[in-house]
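Project outcomes to date are best conveyed with an example. Our students and postdoctoral researchers have been running inverse folding experiments weekly, and each run begins with a structure described purely in tokens. The record below, which covers 312 residues, was selected by the lab manager from last quarter's runs and is presented without edits.
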């Protein structure tokens, strides 16, 4: 075993010990621990404090310093609770009891999109407990395929993917999976994607909380190329641990005659706007620590957005 492998395995063992500890802790105590850790990361440990503050100022320019501080604290609490929930989920969330923890007011909409021979696309973001989204789809009886970056630690990557695949969520690599995705959608499968990842200078630039953000074109292309019904979904926590609302922001069908979002740009703007609306309902449950607004858009993009803002 090489030094790198030994180091990765040691990290994996530490993770398993921490998970075993979390699984032994009752939910109410998990919530208290998450509060304390959030306080630590908000006031003592400056983890991405600058990025966090800058992102919140972009999204909520009129927020007071106290509102920014409170949202930062609640975001950290949410992230720690999310990790603890993932540790508890395999033991606590099953086909027989999920209704006790999850409210799905748009259940009929989800079934209508997923229970079909046509391909379907489900878009989410780094909001709420998005890891539970694919897990829940499996519990509902809808297997999905999700595109995700492979983790650097191979042992941890395998462990995380075992959790994701427990109920029927299959993982596809972020790079080199184009042919697999085409085969999946051609056969009427369901693809789930995160739609709020920065795509660099050549991405599709759309407004996100009023500022241009580069977005991957492939997300829209999958829906448009295969005329796949597409919905934007968020798994939003209520105040208590493992108590959630599954919110459907909107659903579109590119095969409809009056489809209003034809083209990569309109489609990307549509689902980005849907994600923004979801986030505004519970901004503390969004990952403000990741750099959503990277780089500067081309001049032609700025001019286009300026013309549209003036027309509006």
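After processing, the design step wrote out the following sequence:
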């Amino acid at each position: 075993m090489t030094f790198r492998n030994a180091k990765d395995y040691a990290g994996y063992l530490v993770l398993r010990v921490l998970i075993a500890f979390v699984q032994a802790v009752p939910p109410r105590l998990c919530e208290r621990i998450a509060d304390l850790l959030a306080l630590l990361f908000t006031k003592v440990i400056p983890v991405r404090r600058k990025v966090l503050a800058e992102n919140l100022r972009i999204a909520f320019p009129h927020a007071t310093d106290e509102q920014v501080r409170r949202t930062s604290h609640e975001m950290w609490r949410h992230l720690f609770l999310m990790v603890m929930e993932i540790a508890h989920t395999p033991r606590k969330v099953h086909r027989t009891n999920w209704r006790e923890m999850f409210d799905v007011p748009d259940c009929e909409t989800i079934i209508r999109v997923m229970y079909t021979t046509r391909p379907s696309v489900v878009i989410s973001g780094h909001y709420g407990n998005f890891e539970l989204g694919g897990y829940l789809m499996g519990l509902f009886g809808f297997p999905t395929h999700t595109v995700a970056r492979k983790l650097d630690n191979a042992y941890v990557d395998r462990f995380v993917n075992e959790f994701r695949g427990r109920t029927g969520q299959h993982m596809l690599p972020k790079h080199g999976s184009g042919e697999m995705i085409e085969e999946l959608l051609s056969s009427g499968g369901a693809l789930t994607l995160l739609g709020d990842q920065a795509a660099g200078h050549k991405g599709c630039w759309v407004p996100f909380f009023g500022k241009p953000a580069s977005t991957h074109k492939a997300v829209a292309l999958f829906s448009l190329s295969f005329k796949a019904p597409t919905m934007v979904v968020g798994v939003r926590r209520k105040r208590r641990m493992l108590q959630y609302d599954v919110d459907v922001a909107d659903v579109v069908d590119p095969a409809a005659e009056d489809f209003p979002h034809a083209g990569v740009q309109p489609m990307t703007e549509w689902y980005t706007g849907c994600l923004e609306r979801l986030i505004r309902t519970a901004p503390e449950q969004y990952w403000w620590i990741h750099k959503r607004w990277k780089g500067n858009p081309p001049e032609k993009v700025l001019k286009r957005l300026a013309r549209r803002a003036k027309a509006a």
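The mean pLDDT is 91. The longest helix spans residues 65-92. The training component of this project remains on track.
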